[in-house]
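Exercise 7.
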Amino acid sequence: MNTLKIDKCPLCGESHFEEVMTCTDHYASGEPFTICRCTHCGFQFTQSAPVEAEIGRYYESPDYISHSDTHKGLMNRVYHWVRRFMLARKARLIKHNSGLSRGTLLDIGTGTGYFPHFMQERGWRVSAIEKSPQARQFAKTHFALDVNQPEALTDYPEKSFDVITLWHVMEHLEHLNDTWETLSRILKDRGILVIAVPNPTSFDAKKYKDMWAAYDVPRHLWHFTPSAMQQFGAKHNFILSERHPMPFDAFYVSMLSEKYRKSSIPFLKGLWSGTEAWFVSLAKKERSSSMIYVFRKK
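Solution. The predicted structure, written as tokens, is:
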């Protein structure tokens, strides 16, 4: 297996790292992977993950819900319930920040297509990109969406979109800085870039440590703190406009983390941890399990 050996920090360019922890891939392989931290800027990443051309098999578990759309098990049913709630919240957030009721929208890493379908029904002209052939086919079959492969991202003309969204996608992308540059090129000058990522400084991340499900190695290559996300935006000519917590994520992530711990009642224990995390994020949104970042061009 060819692995991605990171010898230079993608955020600051320095090359001195320290090991933070070793996490296990609980989804597909059972393999251990090391998370490292840049000693200069503190950015964290998964070292020696499979390269993009070979990581596909780590997404092939039928439990990988964003690709399979499985309803199997109580935790996945919770996921679907939360997603229905979040679709409306995402639409409101986009309308508020863009000032538009409709326009051009690109959703990157669209999974099975629920979000672009939701926005299309509300009058938006949507484009979507997804790596998984199974997920692309689901979106086509269920929503009549023609979803492009990732290679199409660089083919979009300059200033094509009013809104670009990446919902839990940026942490998967191998070519991180190249992607940021492309996003800057294809976003309109007055457009908005919306990125949601897990938060390794969250309450639940601190509680579960190496068992925190949102580390999700090796699929998650990058682990963005709020500070790191703001710095990446600034590096690529973006200004952070707003930050929003995603407190519901703590429930699903905590339930999975309890499952990985082999707890006897993972749903109930995860529910309790999610509730704790919810109250913490009400007081300090930067400790939410996941965060939504809204960027504008400088």
